[in-house]
Amino acid sequence: MTAEPAETLRDIGETAVLQRIFPRLPQADAALVGPGDDAAVIAAPDSRIVITTDTMVHGPDFRTAWSTPYDLGWKAAATNLADVAAMGATPTALVVALTIPADTPVADLEAFADGMREACAALARGCGVVGGDLGVSPTFTIAVTAIGDLVGGDPVLRSGARPGDVVAVAGQLGLAAKGLALLFARGVDREGVPDARRARNLRSRFPAEVSAQLAPRPPIYAGPVAALSGATAMLDVSDGLLLDARRIAQASGVTIDLATEGTGVAEVLHGGEDHALLACFPGTADVPPPFRVIGRVLPVAPGSDPGVTVDGAAADERGGWDPYAEWAGGAG
Amino acid sequence: MTAEPAETLRDIGETAVLQRIFPRLPQADAALVGPGDDAAVIAAPDSRIVITTDTMVHGPDFRTAWSTPYDLGWKAAATNLADVAAMGATPTALVVALTIPADTPVADLEAFADGMREACAALARGCGVVGGDLGVSPTFTIAVTAIGDLVGGDPVLRSGARPGDVVAVAGQLGLAAKGLALLFARGVDREGVPDARRARNLRSRFPAEVSAQLAPRPPIYAGPVAALSGATAMLDVSDGLLLDARRIAQASGVTIDLATEGTGVAEVLHGGEDHALLACFPGTADVPPPFRVIGRVLPVAPGSDPGVTVDGAAADERGGWDPYAEWAGGAG
C-alpha cells in the first residue's frame, strides 16, 4: 500500500483552494461585505481605524520543520493582533496575503486557516479574516494586515510617557526566546538542520517555552484595558524588553528605569518575540490587571540622553533581536 | 576608475533604509498617526471602510529586467487603488509589506517609493502610505493593502446587476496584454531570458502598450463617480473582459451581452491587467464619463446558466489570464 500523494495548490488551483479555506477562516463581526468581491467592507464605528501590517518569511522568520502550518496561521494572526492592541485598540479584521510554492499541500493551507481561526477565537473574539490574496512564490511568505477600532478612546502612542509614570508589562517575557534557544540547540539534526521530529519532542518536554515561540498568546484584551485605564504610552515587546523600553524612552524624551527586585526582569532584558505589552501609567493611576509594575519613568538626567536604566544604572547597549540572522544552521 | 558598489539593505540596515524611504512615500490626508508606532491611525469618516490586499511576486508576477523599481511601486499602488475604486470608494491609505533580498540596492527602494508616490499623486490624490514592513526574503515580494472610504454611498458589489441595465467600461482594455505580448516576444534575449535593454527599446517604440503593462493608469476617480451615478455592479477588470464580465453575471444571476459594433470589444475579450472598471448602470440612468457603453444586462435564458454572450451568441469558455504560468522563458 502506497500513500496517496498530498493534494497541492497546483493540483486543484486557486479557486478550489479558496473554497476549501474560506469556511475555516474566522468570521469578523464587523464585516459588512466579506471575501469574494474586489474588496471587503467593514464597520469602523469609531470613525478612525488602527492599521498595521507584518510579514513572516520562510527562512528569515520561520522554519517549516519547527512551525506547523497551524502554528504559522496562529502566529501570523497573534503578532498582528498584538500591534493593534498596543495602540489601545480592539482588533476587528484581518486581511491575509499568502504567497506559497505551488506544491504546498492544500491540507497545510487548511491547517493555516485553522490556526488563524483559533488564534482569533482565543485572543480577539469577534475579529476575523475579511479578505486576502493567494499567489505562487518560491518562498512561503505570509503578509497580514490587521485593523482595529479605538472604541472612542485616544490611541496610545510610544511618545506619551511622562516622569512620574509607572512602567508595567502584561504577558510573558523571556519564554519565547527560551523556546527559540531550545530549538536552535536541540531542534536540529547532526548537521544543524531544523528537524521536525526533534522539535516535536522538545515541545512535549518544554511546552511553555516552545509554544511561546511558535504560537504566542499575547494578552490582546489588555491593550484596550490599558487605554481605558489612562495608559500614557504602550508598545508590543517584539524585539526584547530593553530595546523596546528604549523606544518608548526615546519617543517620549524620558528615562525608563527598570527595577529588578521582585520583577524578574533581569533575566528577560533581551530576547524578543514575546509580544507582551509594555505600558506606562500615571503614577497616581491604579495599574489594571494583567499589567504588573516593573519600573518607573524618570526625567532625563542632565548630560544624558533618553534611554533605559536598570536599577538606576545605565543599561548595556546591546539591542536588537534577529536570532536567525547570524545562525549558521540549515534552512529547514 | 571603478564604479562604487551600490549601497544595499544589508550594508545600512532596516532602520537607515526606512529613514531614506519615508520622506519619499506619499502622505495620506487621512493619517492621524503615520508610520513609526505599532500601527497607524487613519480617519474613517464614513464609519465603514473598504479594504483589499494584493501581492506581486518576482517571477510569477513581474520580471526585474522589464519592470523598473519605479514601475513596481507604481503598479503595486495602482492595482490596489483599482480594487478600492471598484467598490465605489475613494482610496485613503496604503500599507506596504516589502520582503526583499538583502543585496537589494537602497536606490531601488527609493525608486519604488517614488513610484508609489507618483501613482498616488496621479491616480488618487490624498491617498498615501501610512505604514509598512520591510523584511529580508530570497524572493522580492510586494504585499500592499489599500483602504478606502465610501463617503456615504453604498458599496458597489458584483452581485447587483439587473436585466435592463447597461454595461459600461472606464479605462483602457487590451493595451496591457499587448504590452506583455510584446515583452514576451521581443523583450527577451536569444535564450528567452527577459532583457532590460531590449525592454527599454520596446518601451520607446510602443510606449502606450508597454507602459499599460508595467505602470498601468486605471481610472481610479471613475469608481466613486460610478457609485454616485447609481452603478448597480462593478469590478476591476484584471483577468480579461470576458472572465470578469462572467464574474458579474454569475454573482448577479444574469446574462451580460457584450456588443462588438462600434465598441472594439471583440479585440479585447481576453488578456488581463488593464485594471479598467467594468460597471452596470440602470438602463434609465445617464452613464457618466469616462464610462462608455459596451453591452447590456439580460435575463438568463431558459435552460441556460448566468454568463456572457457576445452579440447574443454564447462566448467561448476560455477564461483566466496567467501569462507567466506556461511561459518557458528564463527568470529575468
UniProtKB/TrEMBL annotation, chains A, B:
Gene3D superfamilies on file: PurM-like C-terminal domain, PurM-like, N-terminal domain
Positions annotated to bind ATP: G132, D133, R158, S238
Pathway entry: Cofactor biosynthesis; thiamine diphosphate biosynthesis; thiamine diphosphate from thiamine phosphate: step 1/1
Chain ranges of the PurM-like N-terminal domain: 36-148
Gene: thiL
Note, other: Reaction mechanism of ThiL seems to utilize a direct, inline transfer of the gamma-phosphate of ATP to TMP rather than a phosphorylated enzyme intermediate.
Record-annotated membrane-spanning stretches: none
Ligand binding (Mg(2+) 5): D239
Annotated family: Belongs to the thiamine-monophosphate kinase family.
Residue numbers binding Mg(2+) 2: D54, D83
PurM-like C-terminal domain sequence ranges: 162-261
Keywords in alphabetical order: ATP-binding, Kinase, Magnesium, Metal-binding, Nucleotide-binding, Thiamine biosynthesis, Transferase
Name the record gives this protein: Thiamine-monophosphate kinase
Summary of the function given for this chain in its UniProt record: Catalyzes the ATP-dependent phosphorylation of thiamine-monophosphate (TMP) to form thiamine-pyrophosphate (TPP), the active form of vitamin B1.
Binding-site positions, Mg(2+) 3: D38, D83, D236
InterPro entries reported in the protein's UniProt record: PurM-like_C_dom (IPR010918), PurM-like_C_sf (IPR036676), PurM-like_N (IPR016188), PurM-like_N_sf (IPR036921), ThiL-like (IPR006283)
EC code(s) of this entry: 2.7.4.16
Binding site for Mg(2+) 1: T53, D54, D133
Organism: Schumannella soli
